[in-house]
Design goal:
Elements: H1 16-41, H2 45-60, H3 78-86, H4 94-104, E1 109-113, H5 119-128, E2 137-140, H6 144-157, E3 165-168, H7 174-180, E4 186-189, H8 191-200, E5 211-215, H9 217-220, H10 226-234, E6 241-246, H11 253-258, E7 267-269, H12 279-289, E8 294-298, H13 301-305, H14 312-317, H15 319-327, E9 331-335, H16 337-340, E10 350-353, H17 360-367, E11 378-381, H18 389-396, H19 415-424, H20 426-434, H21 448-454, H22 464-471, H23 475-482, H24 495-513, H25 516-528, H26 533-554, H27 563-571, H28 581-586, H29 601-610, H30 623-633, E12 640-643, E13 649-653, H31 675-733, H32 748-753, H33 766-776, H34 786-798
Parallel strand pairs: 1-6, 1-7, 2-4, 2-5, 3-4, 5-6, 8-9, 8-10, 10-11
Antiparallel strand pairs: 12-13
Helix pairs in contact: 4-5, 5-6, 8-10, 19-20, 25-26, 26-27
The chain binds adenosine-5'-triphosphate.
Adenosine-5'-triphosphate binds next to helix 5.
Length: 799
């Protein structure tokens, strides 16, 4: 019998479905076990991240600056790279290229680069790559506006990170800040408020600090903030990384020591040209480092015309200066181009060209003052970016040039020294200010603030003609318009800048003019002008500004979800981002970016733009209002008192009221100016002055006439005497009648007519003489009153 397919038998195949199910059960059981095991083995996210970070950190040492073009070329975390990409930052700027790698390697980096070169990201990227528990990073900026800006960028680029970041900007909400400041990993702040928390907030400490960043370090380390910064630094751990960023100004070696910088790499990013305001420091530093050499420093003739305080041309003409320079082994001669041609100075080590030569030929002549005959010598040309055209000319002339980078560590910044010299010496200061004289050169093409600094002037003088020039189109402009040339002369002070400054100034003024307690405080500080007044003033202003901000924010309240939140915002005008408390409890390390007060910077900005604050509306200040303001301040002018010949003390300035009518108004202390009364008083004063003046003139006339009469009388006496002598002579020559010539006698008529005298009758011609006299005699106008004439006559009669 045959087997059916269904019948079970010993050789029957197992049911595939059942066996699959059995296999599946077994396999999934194993898989579950594996999964469970895997789960057990899995590390927390933060641990994984740390591991990744340490892998990245191993790559830091391999960073090669020359190979960096994009942020992704650095060994950065995914979160930072994502943030950078989302903010459209891909390629690095020069300062970022030069500093980020060094900072990641843990070096202290003082970085100097011009404004707008991307310094903010240069320090924020390393900040974001610093993993931290507690307060790990402090970013200090000198001004409130800067802290805002920095915080905005930090918020944008670091949004994928889990740190908490906070911005404290001062104001009266110290307590509110104090409650939250401890939960911050990255703190952006201004120095004054930070120190206040260090002093007053018991729970606040920075013992775990890993990185200190000073933005605009030059200003933070300035004398005005020196005490505050020293106190802050005392509260920070010594073992930390420090990044300092500054625009154009050098950071002195002393300051670097103050911050106890170690393992420092100075980064100086410039276009390999000298900055205008550095020129003088470069020259000074060069000379200090070549004290045993003989150098000639060439200034352009223009510089000589500017009278830098030493008569350069004159000295060049003087042979003894020439001889002395030749004789000395080490000396510096300041020279103009006159010396560049022809004069032979043996053994000059350096020909230094402080001002760019007019052309390649002048360069060659100047450089030719060194390396004469078989001697060695070197030539150095200090070039500004605006003078780079000369490089091309020199290359054309086949002059070999080598670019030298200034080593900032060896550069002595004498800016402050220059400024203090000028502060002490008014004459020197005036000379420096005169350097802006338009006769000398085209000041409109100057970078004014930089040029002022290079002359030691902290503030550029007011250049009226330049402002006028900006208002009126120049000839060139008119011509260029006629020729449809679109590039007019570009004055360096734009109207926008002037307007910007004016708005800023008005705002500051309006803050000062506010009434109430605060104003009194401000006045007090102004009068006392304490040494750290600058900082206090800044913080006080900050408080005022913050009040304004609060007002602006108050008006924003309706757009907020509920009133309690709105109240919160109103109460806390500063941005203070910290971690959410609930979240903090749940996961201590995982702290999200969270804007507690729901404050939107953009909204804030547009709000400020849309709603011009009272202060930004330009107020027309009348002279009367200004005078009142000055009166309220109770300033007292200096007195100038001189001593007359008679020993009487006379007050010259301020002029005293001399009129007899010293009105009772003086006692009228109503606090304002009564214009009508003041006018009346001035008129009376004027009348009194005129009378006094007239009297003085009359007295002078009288004196003059008396003198004239005296002189005439003396002349008459002399003539009478001469006549006597003549008569004597005639008597004596009586014997010799033939020798007498009557024509030698004086013509008495002539004599008389020339005199308006009423003297005695002298002989037979007296009648004629009298007639002649009366014919020509005009009635005498003494210019005096009748009484005075009488007095004069009496005086004459008496004498
Ligand atoms: N790598 C980059 N790619 C594109 N834009 C950048 C980059 N770095 C910075 N910027 C932009 O350049 C501008 C200037 O940058 P930043 O404010 O950092 O300059 P700064 O040197 O700090 O200037 P200041 O001294 O005036 O503060 C900013 O608008 C910034 O967004």
């Amino acid at each position: 019998m045959g087997k059916t397919a269904d019948s079970p038998g010993s050789g029957a195949r197992p049911d595939p479905v059942r066996s699959f199910n059995r296999w599946k059960k077994k396999h999934s059981h194993g898989q579950n076990k594996k999964n469970q095991l895997r789960k057990q083995l899995k590390k927390p996210e933060w641990q994984v991240e740390r591991k990744g970070n340490s892998r990245l950190m191993q790559n830091y040492e391999k960073i090669n600056v020359n190979e960096i073009t994009r942020f992704s070329d650095f060994s950065l975390s995914k979160k930072t790279l994502k943030g950078l990409q989302e903010a459209q930052y891909r390629l690095v700027t020069e300062i970022q290229k030069q500093t980020i790698g060094l900072a990641l390697q843990g070096r202290d980096v003082p970085g100097v680069a011009k404004t707008g070169s991307g310094k903010t990201l240069a320090f924020l990227v390393p900040v974001l790559e610093t993993s931290t528990d507690g307060l790990g990073v402090l970013i200090i900026s000198p001004m409130r506006e800067l802290t805002y800006q920095t915080f905005e960028v930090l918020q944008k680029v670091g949004k994928n990170h889990d740190f908490s970041a906070g911005l404290i900007i001062g104001g009266k909400y110290l307590k509110h800040e104090a409650e939250r400041i401890n939960n911050i990993n990255i703190l952006v702040c201004a120095p004054g408020r930070l120190l206040q928390h260090m002093d007053e907030t018991v729970s606040f400490h920075a013992t775990a600090l890993l990185m200190l960043v000073l933005d605009e370090a030059y200003r933070i380390l300035d004398v005005g903030l020196a005490d505050t910064m020293n106190a802050i630094i005392e509260n920070l751990p010594k073992k930390r990384q420090t990044l300092l960023f500054s625009a154009t100004q050098t950071i002195s070696v002393k300051d670097l020591a103050r911050l106890s910088l170690k393992n420092t790499e100075y980064v100086w990013v410039h276009e390999k040209f000298c900055e205008q305001q550095q020129k003088i420091s470069v020259l000074y530093s060069f000379l200090r480092r070549h004290l045993k050499k003989k150098s000639i420093v060439f200034f352009s003739s223009l510089f000589c015309q500017l009278r830098p305080g030493i008569s350069i041309l004159q000295q060049m003409r003087r042979m003894e200066v020439y001889n002395e320079f030749v004789r000395k082994r080490a000396a510096v001669l300041f020279a103009s181009d006159v010396a560049a041609r022809g004069l032979d100075f043996p053994a000059v080590n350096w020909a230094l060209q402080f001002d760019c030569p007019e052309d390649a030929n002048t360069y060659i002549h100047r450089a030719g003052r060194t390396a004469r005959y078989k001697e060695d010598g070197e030539a150095l040309l200090i070039l500004l970016a605006s003078e780079k055209a000369i490089v091309q000319q020199l290359l054309q002339k086949k002059v070999p040039i080598k670019e030298i980078k200034i080593n900032p560590e060896k550069l002595t910044d004498i800016q402050k020294k220059l400024e203090s010299f000028l502060a002490e010496d008014q004459d020197l200061k005036e000379r420096a200010q005169r350097c802006f004289d338009k006769e000398v050169f085209d000041v409109s093409k100057l970078p004014i603030p930089e040029y002022a600094l290079s002359l030691g002037l902290a503030v550029a003088p007011c250049i009226r003609f330049l402002q006028k020039m900006q208002k009126q189109p120049t000839k060139e402009l008119v011509m260029s318009q006629a020729n449809k040339v679109t590039e007019p002369r570009a004055p360096s002070l734009t109207n926008d800048k002037v307007e910007e400054f004016r708005a800023f100034f008005n705002e500051k003024m309006s803050i000062l003019q506010k009434g109430g307690k605060r104003l009194k405080g401000t006045e007090h500080r102004l009068a006392n002008d304490t040494s750290d007044g600058e900082q206090e003033e800044e913080e006080d202003n900050e408080e005022e500004m913050e009040e304004k901000l609060a007002k602006a924010k108050g008006s924003q309240a309706p757009s907020l979800p509920n009133t309690s939140e709105a109240k919160k915002i109103k109460e806390v005008p500063m941005q203070f981002l910290d971690r959410d408390e609930e979240e903090e409890d749940a996961d201590f390390l995982k702290v999200k970016w969270h804007n507690v007060f729901g404050f939107d910077f953009k909204e804030e900005k547009t709000l400020q733009k849309k709603e011009p604050s009272k202060s930004s509306i330009k107020k027309k200040v009348t002279k009367v209002a200004e005078a009142k303001k000055v009166m309220k301040r109770n300033f007292k002018a200096n007195k100038k008192i001189t001593c007359t010949d008679e020993g009487e003390l006379v007050q010259q300035w301020p002029q005293m009221q001399k009129s007899a009518i010293k009105d009772a108004e003086e006692d009228d202390d109503t606090g304002g100016i009564n214009l009508d009364k003041a006018k009346g008083r001035l008129q009376k004063e004027d009348k009194f002055d005129k009378e006094e003046y007239r009297k003085k003139i009359k007295a002078k006339h009288l004196e003059k006439r008396l003198k004239e009469r005296e002189a005439r009388r003396e002349a008459n006496t002399r003539q009478a005497k001469a006549k006597d002598e003549e008569e004597d002579f005639l008597d004596w020559s009586d014997d010799d009648d033939d020798g007498f010539d009557p024509s030698t006698l004086l013509d008495p008529g002539k004599y008389r007519s020339s005199e308006d005298s009423d003297m005695e009758d002298v002989g037979p011609t007296s009648h004629n003489r009298k007639k002649a006299t009366w014919d020509t005699l005009e009635p005498l106008d003494t210019g005096l009153s009748l009484a005075e004439d009488e007095e004069l006559v009496l005086h004459l009669l008496r004498s």
